[in-house]
Amino acid sequence: MVWWLVGCLETAETRGRQVEVEADAGLQMCGGTLEHMDRFVEWFAGASGLPLPDEPRISYRWMTPEHYARRNPCAGMPACALGRTVYATEMPHEHELVHAVASDLGLAHPFFVEGLAMAFEGGARDARPTDDEPQAGDGDKAAPMSRVLTALRGRSLWLPGEYYFVAGAFTRYLIDRFGLDLHLEFYRRTWYADSYRTLARAFRAVFGTTLEQTVVEFEAERADCYYSGYRFKTFECEAPELAWDGDRLARSLTLDCEDDTAIGAAGVNVRTLHSFEVAATGRFRVELRDSGAVRATIGSCGGCERASLVRLLAGEVREVELPAGRYFLRAETEAAAPVTFGVVVEKLGE
After folding, report:
1. Within 13 Å, how many C-alpha atoms sit on residue 174's CB side?
2. What is the DSSP secondary structure assignment for residue 77, as one 8-state letter?
3. Superkingdom of the source (predicted)?
4. Hey, is 6 helix, strand or coil?
5. What does the pLDDT read at residue 5?
6. Residue of 144, 130, 142, 125 lying closest to 233 (CA atoms)
7. H-helix or E-strand containing 313?
8. For residue 326, how far is the Cα from the chain centroid?
9. CA gap 260, 300 in Å, rounded
10. pTM of the model
């Protein structure tokens, strides 16, 4: 780690394989954060067919909220990526890492720029209900996603925040239906200021069908699929596996920012990831045991066909239906000191 002075502000520089972090004084990464970012960039670049250089590809400028408010170049956005440089107060911010890597694909239309980042970003939003998630009384259905064409016909050079989730959902639908390579070919053909007519021509040239018809089919097939279902969960679902007999999983785990498996920032958000398999569909009792400093999310590794999500606070006990398949366990805390907690997943009798 190397210390620098930026104006009157002291910063620390840390270099990884793909990411170089310049952090304001007083900000401390957890032990596994830089490795997580390096792996994330390598994975996304590999999936996108982009070459990796022999030196850090991404510059990550990690700022205190006060410094960010005074000096960021993000035009009022809470974080941004300008080319290969990320400016953020969060650590890490996978959404902006996607933007930074994808900048090599060209200056695409903002709907698809944000859609790509929403589809591939990490699961930081899972811990709380997202804006597109059905609320109590909605009949467990998400709102129809009829705003795709409205967003694409807009003339803003920035995508309004209200369209981020539908952009991610539509992007995932295109990737599932046509494949990532073809989607990225279309992405490269778009431009940030393209009119709707220009986008529609490029869409038909690449995919061999009309944009309007594809949106109709998307709405029919994915109207009830929201963020936790459509986003890719590669890192969560490749996390270290918790072995169990399929009837009862009971583990004591620790969140400690200094561990090389911990991701995030000391005293702000520290998280770890694990995974486990459910061999047979059933009803399960799940419980989070700790002193109140931890929250946990159990999420399905499936897509929109199996979008199970369980959020737990300390002391909570839930009974849930878990379809057979792979799941991830994300635990996080804002505590500065190490925190030990327990997780129980127990199959209920017929």
Report:
1. 30
2. -
3. Bacteria
4. strand
5. 44
6. 125
7. strand 309-313
8. 18
9. 25
10. 0.92
Contact 81, 95 (CB under 8 A): no
Region 101-115 average pLDDT: 96
Give ∠ CA 80-100-85 in degrees, rounded to 5. 65
Position 347 pLDDT exceeds 90: yes
Residue type at 328 in one-letter notation? F
When pLDDT is cut at 50, 70 and 90, the band that residue 135 belongs to is low
The burial class, CB within 10 Å (0-12 / 13-18 / 19+), for 86 is buried
44: phi then psi, degrees, rounded to nearest 5 = -70, -40
- At 146 the pLDDT is 58
More confident residue, 136 or 68: 68
Give residue 130's pLDDT: 87
For range 313-321, the mean pLDDT: 91
Per-residue pLDDT, 2: 41
Cβ neighbours of residue 109 closer than 8 Å, sequence gap 6 or more: 152, 190, 191, 192, 194, 199
Distance separating alpha carbons of residues 128 and 136, to the nearest angstrom? 14
Burial class of residue 183 (count of CB atoms within 10 Å of its CB; 0-12, 13-18, 19+): buried
CB 54 within 8 Å of CB 67: no
In the chain, what is the straight-line distance between the N-terminal and C-terminal CA atoms, in Å? 56
Contact 289, 314 (CB under 8 A): yes
DSSP letters spanning 218-265:
HHHHHTT--HHHHS--HHHHTSPB----SSEEEEEEEE-TTSTT-EEE
Q: What percent of the chain has a predicted confidence (pLDDT) above 90?
A: 77
Dist. CA 289–CA 286, nearest whole Å:
10
Q: How far is CA 12 from CA 29, 55, 137, in A?
A: 11, 18, 49
Residue 333: CA count within 13 A, CB half-sphere: 24
**Tokens, residue 202:** 């490029």
From CA 219, how far away is CA 170, in angstroms rounded?
A: 9
Tokens of 305: 């066909």
